[in-house]
UniProtKB/TrEMBL annotation:
Protein localization: Cytoplasm
A GO CC term attached to the entry: cytosol
The TACO1/YebC-like second and third domain, residue ranges: 80-235
Residue span, TACO1/YebC-like N-terminal domain: 3-74
NCBIfam families in the record: PRK00110.1 (NF001030), PRK12378.1 (NF009044), YebC/PmpR family DNA-binding transcriptional regulator (TIGR01033)
Family as reported in the entry's similarity comment: Belongs to the TACO1 family. YeeN subfamily.
Pfam families given in the database record: TACO1_YebC_N, Transcrip_reg
Family annotation (HAMAP family): Transcrip_reg_TACO1 (MF_00693), Transcrip_reg_TACO1_YeeN (MF_00918)
Name of the protein in question: Probable transcriptional regulatory protein BLL40_07950
GO annotation, biological process: regulation of DNA-templated transcription
Amino acid sequence: MGRKWNNIKEKKASKDANTSRIYAKFGREIYVAAKQGEPDPESNQALRVVLERAKTYSVPKTIIDRAIEKAKGGSEESFDELRYEGFGPNGSMIIVDALTNNVNRTASDVRAAFGKNGGNMGVSGSVAYMFDKTAVIGLEGKTADEVLEILMEADVDVRDILEEEGAVIVYAEPDQFHAVQEAFKNVGITEFTVAELTMLAQNDVTLSEEDQAQFEKLIDALEDLEDVGQVYHNVEFSE
């Protein structure tokens, strides 16, 4: 099933500590999702997914409410959803998803981040075919066997269930994201360590110490960009 999710989360932790950056990006994602459909998560699946993910990052309710109210208020601000693909050191692969109100600025910024940090841009489709869109839901306080029983009782099929460093991580098809969560909520589980639709690499690569240091600089540079929401890659970080 590829990289352990906890490994991914752990490496992101230092970046996520910059709460103002994280909150601003979530505010934009929530606004766009609410603007594209009804500003109600019960009837807007895209908004519901973003809100579930925001909850795992402890995004304050004030940030969420402000973004939804902005969408309700008929704001004319619009954003384009963009995806960039590229390569880092020694065959590493990267996908960058962005929301922007200035396509030229974002393209230039992403290209510069790759170029200045040992990477290079690829054409559309050059990397994405090596990743699978996946629903990832994690929780604590249960064993993998207990989680499997809950999901079987709810007649929910998943790809895999793994115990990873004290948590149980469920990997499922994207269209099963809400079904998995509802199965847990029906037995009183409402807190999740992770609840995301993500892109997981089919095969991971490990890098030398020098290449990994360069790669982490590249990922940091991409994640620091204002318009970039998510960065996915196929590198298994070593300690």
